[in-house]
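Contributing new complexes? Match this layout with adenosine-5'-triphosphate.
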Amino acid sequence: MEIPENSVTALIGPSGCGKSTYLRCLNRMNDRIKAARIDGSVEMEGTEIYDPNANLVELRKRIGMVFQSPNPFPKSIRENISYGPRKHGDINKGLLARLFGRDDTEQEGELVERSLKQAALWDEVSDRLDDNALGLSGGQQQRLCIARCLAVDPEVILMDEPASALDPIATSKIEDLVEELSKDYTVVIVTHNMQQAARISDQTAVFLTGGELVEYDDTDKIFENPESQRVEDYITGKFG
Ligand SMILES: Nc1ncnc2c1ncn2[C@@H]1O[C@H](COP(=O)(O)OP(=O)(O)OP(=O)(O)O)[C@@H](O)[C@H]1O
Ligand SMILES: [Mg+2]
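Output block (do not edit by hand):
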């Protein structure tokens, strides 16, 4: 599959067909599973990500991930955003910090504001950044997780059914956000919801049983005139 940058690629297919497993190959998350065996190749801008010398921390910074159920850290909203950049050293202790032994809170503040604005959450939380993130609603928590992912300045965002645990209003906020983000980021999103794939994606990949990628094309083509009979049957609800 060739995944074009700055677009939304949807992965669809029946439950258990291997969508999440495939998605997790794209930033080597399956490496964490002892029994997993992977072959083949995944390249990002011509560089093999399965190169044994690849730096996994750097890789997962460039290719971020948002999971099905929101998983904020049990920390404040602010700390959820600044944790990653601090770990990666993107929030530097500036001159003032060095002279007076203070953290660079100004830089942190800007980053927190920018990330929350990008994730369309700023207006709802700007007056309570030091509250615990677990007090937010599910939809807000998921947008916080997206903001947390954006804060380390990724190029690719992998999303595994990011809206499946949310109500319709929160879902449509996430959908709008995905479309907006694809102007600046490359989004690969797993979804169970075919209408959602049709609404928000530019390309769609259809997986059927056993992790088989059956068809990959422009979303309009997949939904209006797929090549494969099996894909047509799946899309029209004859099975799956
Ligand atoms: N290419 C593959 N080869 C072998 N096993 C696979 C492959 N892809 C997935 N599996 C196995 O199939 C099972 C289901 O995979 P996975 O969770 O990725 O499916 P899914 O499409 O995300 O399902 P759901 O829609 O329910 O989330 C897992 O046990 C996984 O290890
Ligand atoms: Mg899955």
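Reviewers usually confirm one structural detail per submission. For this one: The chain has one domain: 8-235.
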